[in-house]
Structures
1.
Amino acid sequence: MTENKAIEALLQEARVFAPPVEFAMQANAADDAVYREAAADPEGFWARMAAQLTWFTPWQRVLEWDPPHARWFTGGKLNVSYNCLDRHLIGARRNKAAIIWEGEPGDRRTLTYWELAQEVNRAANVLRDLGVKKGDRVTIYMPMIPELPIAMLACARLGAPHSVVFGGFSAEALRDRILDAQAKLVITADGGFRRGQVVPLKRNVDQAVAQTPCVEKVLVVQRVGEREQVMMHRDRDYWWHDLMLQASTRCDPEPMDAEDILYILYTSGTTGKPKGVVHTTGGYLTGVNATTRLIFDLKEDDVYWCTADIGWVTGHSYIVYGPLSNGATSLMYEGSPDYPDWERFWSIVERHGVTVLYTAPTAIRSFMRWGPELPARHDLSSLRLLGTVGEPINPEAWMWYREHIGGNRCPVVDTWWQTETGMIMITPLPGIVPTKPGSATRPFPGVFAAVVDEQGQPVPPGQGGYLVLTRPWPAMLRTVYGDPDRYVQTYWSRFPGVYFTGDGAKLDEDGYFWLLGRVDDVMNVSGHRVGTMEVESALVDHPAVAEAAVIGRHDPIKGQAIAAFVTLKEAAARDGQDHTAELKSHVVEKIGAIARPDQIFFAAELPKTRSGKIMRRLLRDIAEGRQLGDTTTLADPTVVQALKERYEEEEEA
Ligand code: WTA
């Protein structure tokens, strides 16, 4: 199905599912007055949400808004690790599971709140002994093991902003992120497990750190042991387990200003260079705490599982900070859904009695392909609520999820948000809002969204436009690290005073939002953000390549697949070799496997406008098998016609 047809199908969706009565009766958010109250007094609403946290010093003002700069809960002081740990150590929660972890090889570990607090205090002391102070940046490059949230919380305890880099990124990508943040210390592991293989994390760190003079120390967790040989550099590298053994279990939490940085997280944008999205302490924690409680409806005995990797924002907000600040049990799984077999997720749900599951449409579409018999072999009756995130979900996948995983009994919450928003922004509240397959429904209370045209004017229902956010929200990014102009330019300049999301959307007659995908040069591959320009830069970095244009082509499982159109330099074009594999691995080396092009198409020329701009829109038309759009601005329209014909020949062959 081409993308246009998929969107058409989405817009004709008419099914509605009311919240199940049994669910609504017990829901954390059960009264739709919350929407009216928050709309009438958003600051009052957010102040009530912030009051759910423990503050060392109360705030003086809820919001100072000097567009596009917001400060939330100014004057307030708090510590995120205190809110995620210490305050749960009184009463029954002390011995409750904070983290239930399962490694890919099948090893398991459960940490109670008490145990987690001990580990975090120790780790904070280790970091302090290695010279980390309030304000120092720490890069974390780790597999999905409990030491990852422990390291994050230890940084938060000291007031040292962390920058977690997804373990699938290459050494070069890691180097760039370390340099941009000017990190003083890197926390990593010897390796991690992925589909039975070892990912050589420490080796990548060695390669990266050879070119990052800012890094003084490297702390290494042992995960894979003898499966990977690691070199420890004297006076630079330390084993985590050695230092943890001697560290004290008491480290007082640093009182942080509400607006102090909690973390930096790099994400892809429309240029080749990723942006360091900056999140602060009070507003961010308020946003993720409230959304987790009200959307995922967490109760004392829930086992909540978000299947994302903590290397992405979803893991930051909805594996670590949201659930733990609510005193919930958060399940973490190290590996991939297809290892050792296609039933891994369902055996985890069954084994641990998972009650709330939060995953991505791309995973759901894989499960569909693998067949409903696989989940049917497991007892999934513990599940009571399902969530999805990361990309638009097609109604068919939504329905399949509801039926085959949720037994037609669990509400499905499709949650729209971004690294930049920090928290979920558009979503149903499962006990209140009737859902429609494929729609993220309504803005969360206290969030204001609109769909506008080129001029920034709201468009009528049924008409597509740009999704914007019209008022500040507490978990919003505060800036782009080290590049305040880029913050203003990227998000606040297209429509002054209004946040531009980069997404297209449509409103229906009921005021429901339907997300239509990115409208900029950002691709969404299996729910991961990849910039077209990043991949293009990686390609033209290869000595054989003259020019490259990259587009996201509709893909039935991954959402989008990466297609690259490349022109080779003379010598390479004539050498009679196939450069496909070489170019793909070059991109993997520059960025990581998530950016590996699915397809490389070699062309003698790329379609350009008279002013020399490559027309990516036409390349998308070609790759998705559509009629070519408007070609009148092209310098030479025959180029694109020839390209289309050759492309189709190759596709058939
Ligand atoms: C897309 C992930 C439709 C969107 C939390 C957004 C979605 C980008 C949804 C952010 C959804 C995320 N429906 N599209 N429910 N959730 N997106 O920064 O294009 O990795 O702009 O944050 O993912 O990706 P990011």
2.
Amino acid sequence: MDIRNTTSPVLVTGATGYVAGWVVKRLLEEGLTVHAAVRDPSRADRLRYLDDVAAQSSGSIRYFKSDLLEAGSYADAMRDCAVVFHTASPFVIDVADAQRDLIDPALLGTRNVLEEANRTPTVERVVVTSSCAAIYGDNADQRETKTGKFTEDDWNTSSSVDHQAYSYSKTLAEREAWKIADGQDRWRLVTVNPSLVLGPGLNPFATSESFTLIKQLADGTLKVGVPDVGMGIVDVRDVAEMHLQAGFNANARGRYITSGHNASFPLIAQALRDHFGDQFPFPKRTVPKWLLWLIGPFVDKRMTRKYVSRNVGLSWVADNSKGIRELGITYRPLAESAVEMLQQMIDSEALKPETG
Ligand code: NAP
């Protein structure tokens, strides 16, 4: 499918999301008609930023009311679409009930959307926004890999409803996606598996967990130190580009690790300090593993001893070469993503510098 010859509309689920915003923008820039599935299309004020993006592009946008947990609610939005981008899934870490708040919407939502694709004869391709969280659960899992690096052949087998529930929700959802895709032969499934996404957002009301990390590094929450936990980082605009390639490139097949940098909490803090200096109380130290093991569970209920022992002090390395080789993806520098994200928070007065 050549994007330049596509006249059919395309569907983006969860169009109000942080990642989806840039996907929608890129699709509109390509002149496409985007069917934006959102929970509440009557909140025109919350969608104005997407209208503005559409007005500045050659494409057009239409809103549809859909909910992951409401069977059949994607039918109108998907009608006549050639490509479905399924991005909707809750990305929150601190939840009251992991089954209700994470696993059900991720898993049942994926089933809801992909079964609708089975009923919609125009659909040729479905792109699911999965995650590196469906590839690994804890950094310790890296020891079990064949090459010492995470690849698209790896699956997260260490998460559960009680341990890394968000990662578990993404794993169950992606497995379900492949099961449904393998049961038919009309449309092709391609999954985009991003690591932690950073970079400026388009939606002024965004709630993605991505914002929490940068905010906490700058607002003093982590002033005493950060845990030395390795993680992948990728820019939100590079993730959007991967979605377009996954949706339209004839070579796109299977899963794509979408991660620009094998990084860590301390490295992100360092990139921010290098740019913003002492304007914010960025952490300067790492908290020793033994101390986190001892007091972590009392400070933050997610910092369990199991989490500490299987993640702190351990690196994270992934092989991102498949997307580079097959789809020509390039990645922005980590500092650009982190700095522009914090700068956006400063400009919108969500964060105020201590000095200057
Ligand atoms: P986000 O801004 O919180 O977006 C999540 C989207 O899902 C929102 O549009 C939200 O709609 C929608 N949603 C949640 N529950 C829903 C429901 N019951 N019915 C319909 N829509 C629902 O988070 P994000 O960071 O952009 O995440 C988007 C996707 O990327 C997710 O699949 C996430 O797992 C994946 N991902 C994110 C990262 C990252 O670092 N950000 C990394 C890897 C993968 P409302 O606006 O109505 O709440």
